[in-house]
Structure formats: structure tokens, C-alpha cells
């Protein structure tokens, strides 16, 4: 199975990059399943139903979540619907809208997609969260008897140590464990010893010369002078597309090859 996991789609420019690149990659790489990190899609926070539909038309099959999953109330019904291909982190309290894992039906068979939030994620570090390792164990145990051809884990967090540890923690139990939230790709895409593809952070889709998609002048004055500023998304300059391409065995559910993809436009 050929699976593409796309890094954080950042704003309108990120959507345009996906629209430009994904249809071509689906043809050239013979992709079977495409997942995108969707927590920054609409103006940098959350995703609207309109942008959700737009990215599906571009060739994205499924959408994972992060700390901005609840920024757009209009997407709550899709988050809760088991038949809609979008999830929020599973280790949020069960009182929060939506589901943390769902199955997607593909021509090759069912694919389980799980999203998880790190214990430290910016301003959300004090939010109530279940232990991600314990939550992961609970999900994998509960779904162990359900037939599936692949299991995809998204881990959204700040600490590289958490992202690395969870990759090894689920090694041999899932097809791939992909970190995101940094918007900066790490140079460690590989298949771990037990057969799980892993990358500490897959990067983003958006403007290359920016601070995680935000204009530098919105950041530097706040950092240097302590002046409160709002993040303003950068819209000019070279664009980037970052993703992880994984080839897996549908019989074992494990990865055979992992390749980081970066395209500069």
C-alpha cells in the first residue's frame, strides 16, 4: 500500500499547494491513501466545512487533528460522524466534540487512523489530557480484532523526545507514526526496527520563508520588544510541500519503506 501523510496545511497558501501537488503525486507515486494534518487549514486555525470539502476534491482522503481542532464549530458534526474522514486528538476528554480515531474504507481494505496530542503543545500545555501512551494502548487493544490493512498514527506535539518515544513505543504495532506541529521537517524519516515508519516531524505546506507560516515581522517585534502582536500569515514568496511517503505490506500491516518528500515551488 502506498500512503502519503501531508504535513500541516497552513492557510490558503497551504490549500493551494496541496491542490497543485497532490493530484500529480497521486498519479506519479500510485498513491492508495492520502492523509493531511488539518488543524491549521482555515486562516491558520482549524478547518471549515468548505475547506474540508475543497481539500477532499484535491485528493486528500483523510484529515488528522491537533490543538486547534475545535477552532471552528461548524466542523464539529463531521468530527463526530464516524463516516466523515476527520478526527481530533484521541487523548482529549471524551466530553470534547468528535472522535480521536476512525476507520477509512479503501480499495485495499480498512485503514485505522489515530490522532494523539503531546503533553506539551504551546499554550495548551495546561489542558486536561489523557496520557498519550496509555490512550494509545487502549485504542490498539480495543481495535486489535478489527480487520485492517494499515494503522496510521499522528502525534501532534512540541517535544521531539515525545515524538521519538511514541514512534518506538508503537513500533511493530502500527504501519506508521508521524509527528507534526513544528511545521519544520526533520531529517529522520525511516522504518524502525519493528517495521513502523516514523518521522519526528513531517513539516508543513505553505510559505517557505516564514516562521511556521507566519510573517517574520509579526514575530520579531514581539520577541525583541515584548510588544503584543497578532500572527499574520505570510502569503508571498516560495512555497513548500512536505509529506512522508510510506510503502506498506497489507498482509502484515507494517512498513517496508519510508521517504520524506519536500517540493519547493
Which descriptors apply to this entry?
seven-stranded mixed beta sheet, single chain, alpha/beta, 28% strand, 265 residues, six-stranded mixed beta sheet
What are the SSEs and their pairings?
Layout (H helix, E strand, L loop, with lengths): L1 E5 L1 E2 L1 H18 L4 E5 L11 H10 L3 E3 L11 H5 L20 E6 L2 E9 L14 H11 L7 E7 L3 H10 L6 E5 L9 E2 L5 E3 L4 E4 L8 H10 L13 E11 L4 E11 L1
Parallel strand pairs: 1-3, 2-11, 3-4, 6-7, 7-8, 8-10
Antiparallel strand pairs: 1-12, 5-6, 9-10, 11-12, 12-13
Helix pairs in contact: 1-2
Description:
This protein is of the alpha/beta class and 265 residues long. Helices cover 24% and strands 28% of the residues. The protein has 6 helices and 13 strands. The chain has helices at residues 11-28, 49-58, 76-80, 132-142, 160-169, 216-225, and strands at residues 2-6, 8-9, 33-37, 62-64, 101-106, 109-117, 150-156, 176-180, 190-191, 197-199, 204-207, 239-249, 254-264. The strands form 2 sheets. Strands 1, 2, 3, 4, 11, 12 and 13 form a 7-stranded mixed sheet that branches. Strand 12 (239-249) and strand 13 form a beta hairpin. Helix 1 runs parallel beside helix 2 (49-58). It is globular and about 55 Å long. It starts with a strand and ends with a strand. The model has no long low-confidence stretch (mean pLDDT 96).
